[in-house]
Amino acid sequence: MVDLQWLGVVRHGQSTGNVLAEQAEAGGLEEIAIPERDADVPLSELGREQAQAVGRWLAGLPVHERPKVAVVSPYLRTRQTAELALAGMDVPAVLDERLRDRELGVLDLLTTRGVEARQPVEAARRRRLGKFYYRPPGGESWADVLLRLRSLLGDVRTAHPGGRVVLFGHEAIVMLVRYLVEGLDEPALMRLAKDSALGNCSISSWRSDGERLRPERFNAVEHLHRDENPATRRENADR
Length: 239
What we know:
The chain is of the alpha/beta class. Helix content is about 40%, strand content about 15%. It has nine helices and six strands, in the order βααβαβαααβααββα. The protein has a six-stranded mixed beta sheet. The longest helix has 18 residues, at about 140-160. The radius of gyration is 17 Å and the shape is globular. The termini are far apart.
């Protein structure tokens, strides 16, 4: 099967949920007061500016290097990021639920402190199993998310052989796409997760060398600094 010519992944811009989660963690609270369901959390004003900065970066690429199609998580913050980043560009975008964020089940809306206080059995089980295989009741493990991403990437490669595709997704999605494209193992992924706090509207990409996709950039945020939009991070991978 012919691989893609280029694959990019953009994490969504800062969301109102990111802001509330940071405040809750910093304040030592047990619960994050996000009023919407996860799928309906919008971008913050800064997040919208970050998404527009991605758009300027994409528009600044040579025509022959720009993505030809976008695949987007259906969550509101991700759709808004894609809409702003692709505005004025002739890049068709399709929604695919396989790019949605990892589902946290009973841990949803709990801070790190909240998990320990309200779900101590689950906290202990998570420590024992590790984040790769731990599945919270009603939620997903990283391995579960990988199953849907394998399916998605297979379909994308089949539909766009030799093409240039950009994905708009979430923090765990970026990490796990890298795992799949680069053939990482669990220890390598865990080191990556420990050492990397993915920026909102960061860009990661891989380019074909004629045989396979090779890493080009990871967690790049230079386009945000260039446009005087501060890079923001929300480490959610431990939950």
